[in-house]
Amino acid sequence: MSQQQLATMLALQDAINTVVNENWREQNFAWYRAIWVESAELLDHYGWKWWKKQEPEIEQVKLELVDIWHFGLSLELQQGAPEVVAQEMQQQLDAIDVSAGDFRENLESFTLNTLATKQFDLPGFAQLLADCAMDLDELYRRYVGKNVLNRFRQDHGYQDGSYQKQWQGREDNEHLAEIVQSLDTAAENFSVQLYEALKIRYPGAKKDLA
Predict the structure, then answer these.
(1) Total domain count for the chain?
(2) InterPro entries, alphabetically (predicted)?
(3) Residues 22 and 65 in one domain
């Protein structure tokens, strides 16, 4: 993952947070609390019950990690502008050297650090990615896709109930996954291309939106 990709994700997170509350930084939302609650859901998807047979639901695990990343980026953005934060995060990531370990124990350590500091444990998060064989490029693709889809839903009536989640017999998530595969995820305007591609497919899309 490049510093430009980090800056893109931070800018997208800033934008979606602003849609929810334009003064979100001043509100001091408890992002850390959202992280530890999501971590509990993440553990359920991975499996921890010794009294029944469980296999890790890896796809769900990855989706939960992306959700945690949303909250982590929000915490990081409390420290400054996206470009500045991206540089600092890149320096941290460059210094991290992790290999796969015990996911459950590492998740508990990540959660404890989150509760103790009320900040985002970036090294701990990188460890969780390694534990489930999810690299930073996959994180980028999944995050941008989810963020753009969330914004697209908001722009097309999600709050008032007029948004159609099913298009041509398929859910919007399926269209999203197909479109992502057709685009160059390394392009600086990847998120813009993705949004425009969703507009082309969505029935009744607002063509004047960027």
Answers:
(1) 2
(2) dUTPase/dCTP_pyrophosphatase (IPR014871)
(3) yes
